[in-house]
Specification:
The chain is an alpha/beta fold. The chain contains 21 helices and 19 strands. The chain folds into two domains: 221 residues, Aldehyde Dehydrogenase, Chain A, domain 1, CATH 3.40.605.10; 257 residues, 3-Layer(aba) Sandwich (Aldehyde Dehydrogenase, Chain A, domain 2). An eleven-stranded mixed beta sheet has the order 1-2-3-19-15-14-9-10-13-12-11, sandwiched between helices. A six-stranded mixed beta sheet has the order 6-5-4-7-8-17, sandwiched between helices. Helix 2 runs antiparallel to helix 6, helix 9 packs across helix 10 and helix 11 crosses helix 12. The longest helix has 29 residues. The chain is globular.
């Protein structure tokens, strides 16, 4: 490797690295499955070895105190996610290498509309217990049926003579595992060598990632780049780059595709791109959580207040999948009580800095734009609540992702559950920007009584991940789930992007991932007709054992054992 690109852009070093990738692209595309599996196994070992350094560096950069439960976020969305993802992809390659059915052990379901879904979680008893009560299914696009489903999987590995390509990955600056997981997707699912351009916000992780991916780097299949927008611009236009995958904002996407300024705006309006390479993207958006009326107890309200606060304030709110708008039923007594409970949860949280650049300005802009906005904390960048936003308005909180600690509420008429859900789905689809993820919270009694309306709502929501009684962010951690926007966005109206990542089973025509979780924590699940093990999900910002559980999850993912699994459950039960 030629070293990090620090300071003035070193185009000669970049050119050398891209030349290396180009020369090795065909060799990587034709590398045997066994050799790819071996490289992934070495990656897992190295990630396990570097995990503590990774978490320590990320926690320090984000201002998390040593020993804080919040450090669990860095374990779970950092090395755990990468190790779990790489292991799942390696298992798929093993099935390909041995001729096993890629879907053996994964139930296939055909819905009333004829559409095919594959349950990708849980795969086995350990997964069933780790995220107890959670299921995930990947629903396929129209035209995929049980007769051709397998033909639409792992299509790269059906090519007789793949030529090889060079992909540029523009890394994210928030969740630490996004960039390395995207790198794995490009290397394995797409069979492409790759250059990872680190985001300046978290490029301190670059040396750690270089160590983890050293076997790929040494073989000439991966390179790293560092620097600002000038480096990114040079890379995306480089003749040696065949394709680009990015995580970021729609503005960055449009700057790549159409350019900037008035000329860029005119090109976008006319859809006259200056960029002609394949470009996939994950661009975030305004995420909704639809709360369905029902007989919620005080304990239900408290639990889901913690749930909603987690959806917003995990990683200090700097998540593309963060909930931004809570949709509440008009006239339901629980609406006001739920908002009150949210305020109480926020007031009891451990303070932490808003580390992502520009957060102060973004929060201030949202507060000044919405008359009902008020600060719930006295931090320099306060958690800000915007209440009762008119659902028919052109409010900023509906059109712009705050990417920070801003949460809004809106209410819709609820003469009955079916009417309310239909209106809430229409609002989410047509009024909110983006299609990355949507959440729905429904009490089990209501779910049983209104099952057709709830199922219709889940299928009508045009989002890449839809979560029932859990958070769509959990889907990011499930490697066999797909992660990305709802398909079909036009290039000049990109919304939350194009394409999917993770996707360890390598579905080529997925429409969305659907998550279903338990409504209430144990032991109240017995009263609602559900069952799961842990009293509080480990990803909750209020979980006191999150750091312990996160580290143990990571070690178990790298070296599974029933002893390590017992340690995870023991810590989870104390959460």
């Amino acid at each position: 490797m030629d070293g990090r690109y620090i300071g003035p852009m070193d185009t000669a070093a970049i050119d050398r690295d891209l030349d290396t990738l180009s020369r090795n692209a065909a060799a990587w595309a034709r590398t045997s499955l066994d050799d790819k599996i071996h490289l992934l196994e070495r990656l897992v070992v190295r990630a396990d070895r570097m995990a503590a350094d990774w978490v320590s560096a990320a926690a320090a950069a984000k201002g998390l105190p040593e020993g804080s439960p919040l450090v669990g976020e860095e374990w779970m969305s950092g090395p755990y996610a990468l190790i779990y993802g790489a292991t799942a992809v390696a298992e798929t390659l093993e099935r390909l290498a041995t001729g096993r059915d890629l879907l053996e052990g994964f139930p296939i379901r055909v819905g009333p509309d004829g559409r095919v879904s594959v349950q990708v979680y849980p795969k086995d008893l350990i997964e069933r217990l780790l995220l107890s009560g959670l299921t995930a299914e990947v629903r396929m696009m129209e035209g995929v049926d049980t007769s051709n489903l397998r033909d639409t999987m792992a299509t790269f590995y059906r090519q007789e003579h793949p030529q090889g390509t060079v992909t540029l990955v523009l890394g994210a600056g928030n969740i630490a595992s996004i960039a390395p997981l995207d790198l794995v997707t490009m290397l394995i699912n797409r069979g492409s060598v790759a250059m990872l351009k680190m985001n300046p916000v978290n490029d301190y992780l670059g040396p750690i990632f270089e160590d983890i991916f050293a076997p790929f780097v040494d073989a000439g299949y991966v390179r790293f780049a560092y620097g600002g927008s000038d480096v990114g611009e040079y890379l995306v236009r480089h003749r040696a780059v065949d394709a680009v995958h990015m995580t970021g904002s729609a503005r960055t996407h449009d700057a790549i595709v159409y350019g900037t300024g008035d000329d860029g705006a005119a090109r976008k309006a006319a859809d006259r791109p200056i960029f002609d390479k394949p470009l996939t993207s994950e661009l975030g958006g305004v995420g909704p959580t639809i709360v369905v009326p029902g007989r919620w107890s005080d304990a239900d309200l408290r639990f889901h207040a913690e749930h909603l606060v987690t959806q917003k304030l995990h990683n200090s709110g700097f998540n593309c999948i963060a909930n931004q708008v809570i949709v509440l039923p008009e006239g339901w007594p629980g609406s006001e009580r739920l908002v009150d409970a949210i305020e109480r949860v926020v007031s009891g949280l451990e303070p932490r800095p808003a580390y992502y650049p520009g957060a102060d300005e973004r929060v201030r802009r949202f507060a000044e734009t919405h008359p009902s906005a008020r600060a719930l904390t006295d931090a320099a960048t306060p958690v800000t609540l915007i209440e009762n936003v008119d659902p028919g308005s052109d409010a900023l909180c509906f059109s712009d992702e705050a990417f920070g600690p801003v949460l809004a509420t809106t209410t819709l008429p609820a003469p009955d559950v079916g009417t309310y859900l239909a209106a809430a789905v229409e609002f989410a689809n047509d009024r909110l920007s983006g299609t990355l993820g949507a959440n729905v919270l429904v009490h089990p009694r209501t779910l049983r009584a209104e099952a057709p309306s709830v199922e219709r709502a889940i299928l009508d929501l045009r989002y890449g991940t839809v979560a029932l009684n859990t958070w769509t962010g959990v889907g990011f951690l499930l490697p066999r789930a797909t992660w990305g926007a709802f398909p079909g966005h036009r290039r000049n109206d990109i919304q939350s992007g194009v394409g999917v990542v993770h996707n360890a089973l390598m579905f080529e025509r997925p429409e969305r991932t659907i998550l279903r979780g338990p409504f209430a924590p144990a032991p109240r699940t017995f009263l609602t007709g559900e069952f799961h093990v842990a009293p509080k999900p480990p990803f909750f910002v209020t979980n006191r054992q999150a750091a312990v559980v996160g580290e143990r999850l990571t070690r178990h993912a790298a070296n599974p054992s029933w002893l390590r699994f017992g340690g995870i459950i023991g810590a989870a039960l104390r959460g």
